Amino acid sequence: MSKEDVLDIAHVGFLEMIKALIGQSGAPSTKGTLIRIALAAADKVDNVDYPSIEDFLTAVENVETNISRIEGPAVHIGDGVFGLPKCPFADSIVNYKDVFKGMPEGFAEVTNEFNREGIVTDKFRVGSGAGVSPFCAIHQPLRSALGNGITIGGKKTVIYQLGCKSAGGAKGLAQKWINESGHSEELVTKVLDDHMCCYCIKVEE
Amino acid sequence: MDNIRDLLGDLVRTEGINTAVVVSRDGFVIEGVSTGNVDTEAVGAVVASGIGAAEVMGRELMTGEMTQGMLEYKNGVIVMSTLGMDAILAVVADLSAKLGSVRYQVKKSMPKLLDVL
């Protein structure tokens, strides 16, 4: 057995904890708890200003932004649209599936809840079809909340979650945020052909 | 038509009621009014998980859909009511409150709240 075969018990335990939350308090409450965990984490991170968009893109490339430090390097497709090659929860999923041969019960319910319109998902421009697993309820709000703490040349930035792809290859598109951000569904679909997650960053004028 | 804040304001004018809050099922506050130092955001999170747990209990014990729950503590009571499929009304009252009156006021406010949600 090689070192790579050793399971990460924290991953397995985390997924089991989500399953327990669903069983004990239902999917809507679990979704809310996952979002609150994300927002509380983002709250602890200091705000950062980048002098220019070029500086920001260099920091993304070098995995130096608060966002890239939690999700790894994203690829700038152009016009503020980014594709993420690897889901930051991919290793958790692999570890869990190694033990249980599938995902826990109730996960689909939380995903459906995350995709429903809600106060916080609207505020952070996430979900609305872009959720493909309960992990999106952590990852997407966390990224958007971290984005709120990033300024470029002193101007605020906003992040729109445009789409996400499950480990099985199913694409989830956030039509509402695609429309509002002004990008096309075709572009998002194309980005998701080669990436697991697609979002855009806009600098407010 | 009254707005949610007005309706919650009416509730906290009932003797003994110090907090009235409407939260979404995921525990985020839609609107809240408190006469004391209660953090309505914190109330939202715990009410959603509390009512979620109570609903799971009802399902397991086959007692049907949950409509209202009342929790009695040493220093007060919490009344939680489901507001349709998407929201919850939670009212916190101290020991000076008359339970019948609290429940009556909550029941009276429900259709109005459902109208404005």
Q: Helix tally of chain A?
A: 10
The termini of chain A sit apart by 55 Å
Spatial shape of chain B: globular
The largest β sheet of chain A comes out as: 7 strands, mixed
**Domain module tally of chain A:** 1
Helix content of chain B: 40-55%
Low-pLDDT regions of chain A: none
Q: Helix/strand/pairing class of chain A, anyone?
A: alpha+beta
Order of helices and strands of chain B: HEEHEEEH
Oligomer: heterodimer
Question: Would you tell me which CATH topology of chain B applies?
Answer: Beta-Lactamase
Low-confidence stretches of chain B: none
Overall strand count of chain A: 7
Beta-strand share of residues of chain A: 15-25%
Which protein chains make the most extensive interface, counting residues with beta carbons within 8 Å of the other chain's beta carbons? A-B, 16 and 15 residues
Q: Would you count the extended β strands of chain B for me?
A: 5
List SSEs of chain A in N-to-C order: HHEHHEEHHHHEEEHHE
Walk me through what this model shows.
The complex is a heterodimer of chains A (about 200) and B (about 120). Chain A is an alpha+beta fold. Chain A has one domain (about 5-205). Chain A contains 10 helices and 7 strands. In chain A, strands 1, 2, 3, 4, 5, 6 and 7 form a 7-stranded mixed β-sheet that branches. The model of chain A has no long low-confidence stretch (mean pLDDT about 95). With about 120 residues, chain B is α+β, with helices and mostly antiparallel strands. Chain B has one domain: Dynein light chain 2a, cytoplasmic (Beta-Lactamase), CATH 3.30.450. Chain B has 3 helices and 5 strands. Chain B has helices at about 5-10, 40-60, 100-115, and strands at about 15-25, 30-35, 70-75, 75-85, 85-95. Chain B has a 5-stranded antiparallel β-sheet with strand order 2-1-5-4-3, with helices on both faces. The N and C termini of chain B lie close together (about 10 Å). The mean pLDDT of chain B is about 90. The interface of A and B includes residues 25, 32, 33 and 120 of A.
